[in-house]
From TrEMBL:
InterPro entries: DegT/StrS_aminotransferase (IPR000653), PyrdxlP-dep_Trfase (IPR015424), PyrdxlP-dep_Trfase_major (IPR015421), PyrdxlP-dep_Trfase_small (IPR015422). The active site is at residue 201. The modification N6-(pyridoxal phosphate)lysine is found at residue 201. GO terms for biological process: polysaccharide biosynthetic process. This is dTDP-4-amino-4,6-dideoxygalactose transaminase. Keywords: Pyridoxal phosphate. GO terms for molecular function: pyridoxal phosphate binding; transaminase activity. PANTHER family: 3-OXO-GLUCOSE-6-PHOSPHATE:GLUTAMATE AMINOTRANSFERASE, TRANSAMINASE. Gene3D superfamilies: Aspartate Aminotransferase, domain 1, Type I PLP-dependent aspartate aminotransferase-like (Major domain).
């Protein structure tokens, strides 16, 4: 049997007519830069995420880069972030001339550890406060521990830029002042949230696209200005922005897809439950296979919420490279997210971070493996994936 890591054929086929109609509207309108399709998507994504404003941009990477530019973070500044993410997170920091400060992650969620962040922020205070922003990443579709992160951000007066590229629609149980729980969506808790519409994300377009959301009206205006070379008004530049605009064709496609997003999350969550059941039946859970955990799901009523949207279903296993090869030989798509931590990348040598020891992130880089989890995945395919893994550990 062949089980691809991701198969976009079915999703695209189901929406093909609607997508082509929406694209045709853009073609016929002759509005090919910004315009009503982008404005509509900006509003719809902001509303979906519970943020005030959306600013559609050219990619998730540009969402991060443009936000750092708009905050005027640059040389001499540092940004506190995770060592375990896609490269774009740290790439954006370096491209504005700032330096990353890496806090190790939690082994269960793969997300930045607020305890480690607190230590680094305390140290930074002694050294003259150069940390000017925090970028937590909601990795694989589960929110970082935003209650603790926002408390630290408030204590130190530092803005939080959520890298929610993998987590649009994921929810976190934020504790309100009166002790009640308010479920907040990824990207709508910090000053800004950055999303990616790369085709492999839960909401993907037909190419590159992204969005920044914020509930700060003045900052939304600033971001919109940066999206278009910092022009305000046209041809007058008090700021230096860039061409960070989302194409209306991609916005039109995304408007067709957005109403289906909750259903796709539910299918991914159902697939995750099937894996939990199948791995348990095969006697593989905890040892040798560590399954992903939705850690903030403990609060009452949590099952009704998207605490995890499973952009990736990442297991931890010993002897990963051998299992990976075996799965590929048996026709099962899988991938390592990520084989090299950000602080260990070759391009980081000149910043001295390759010397750092961040043991939890480094361990995960050795033993994590993503399995197919896309919404249309069938039960027989999951049974096959688990049977191949069981076979591997039996032999
Ligand atoms: C995908 C991704 C990005 C970058 O998004 P693009 O749209 O591909 O530029 C940034 N951060 C994380 C965590 C991602 O997964």
């Amino acid at each position: 049997m062949n089980v691809p890591l991701l198969d976009l054929h079915q999703q695209t086929a189901a929406l093909r007519d609607d997508i082509l109609r929406a694209v045709t509207e853009v073609v016929d309108s002759t509005t090919y830069i910004l315009g009503p399709k982008v404005t509509q998507l900006d509003q719809d994504v902001a509303a979906y995420c519970g943020a005030g404003f959306g600013i559609g941009v050219s990619s998730g990477t540009d969402a991060l880069l443009m936000t750092l530019m708009a905050l005027e973070i640059g040389p001499g500044d540092r940004v506190l972030t995770t060592p375990y993410s896609f490269f774009a997170t740290v790439g954006a920091i370096l491209r504005v001339g700032a330096l990353p400060v890496f806090a190790d992650i939690e082994g269960e969620t793969f997300n930045i550890d607020p305890g480690k962040m607190a230590e680094l922020l305390a140290e930074d205070t002694k050294n003259g406060r150069t940390i000017k922003a925090i970028i937590p990443v909601h990795l694989f579709g589960q929110c970082a521990d935003m209650g603790k992160i926002m408390a630290l951000a408030q204590e130190y007066g530092i803005p939080v830029i959520e890298d929610a590229a993998q987590a649009i629609g994921s929810e976190y149980p934020m504790l309100a002042k009166d002790g009640s729980t308010v479920w907040r969506k990824a990207g709508a808790m910090g000053l800004v949230g950055c999303y990616s519409f790369f085709p492999s994300k839960n909401l993907g377009c037909l190419g590159d696209g992204g969005m920044v959301v914020t509930s700060d009206k003045a900052f939304a205006d600033t971001l919109r200005c940066y999206r278009n070379h910092g022009a305000q008004p046209k041809y007058y530049h008090a700021k230096i922005g860039g061409n960070f605009r989302l194409d209306p064709i991609q916005a039109a496609v995304l408007s067709v897809k957005l109403p289906h997003l909750e259903q796709w999350h539910k299918q991914r969550q159902a697939n995750s439950r099937v894996y939990q059941e199948l791995f348990a039946q095969a006697g593989l859970t905890d040892n040798p296979v560590m399954l992903p955990k939705a850690v903030h799901a403990a609060s009452p009523g949590a099952t009704a919420h998207n605490h995890h949207i499973y952009n990736q279903f990442v297991i931890r296993i010993p002897n990963r490279e051998a299992l990976r090869t075996y799965l590929q030989q048996q026709g099962v798509g899988c991938e390592v997210y990520y084989p090299v931590c950000l602080h260990k990348q070759d391009c980081m040598k000149k910043y001295g971070t390759t010397e750092l020891s961040l043991p939890i992130a480094e361990q995960l880089a050795q033993d994590s493996l993503a399995l197919p989890i896309f919404p249309e995945l069938r039960r027989e395919q999951q049974e096959y994936v688990v049977s191949v893994i069981a076979e591997f550990y039996r032999s």
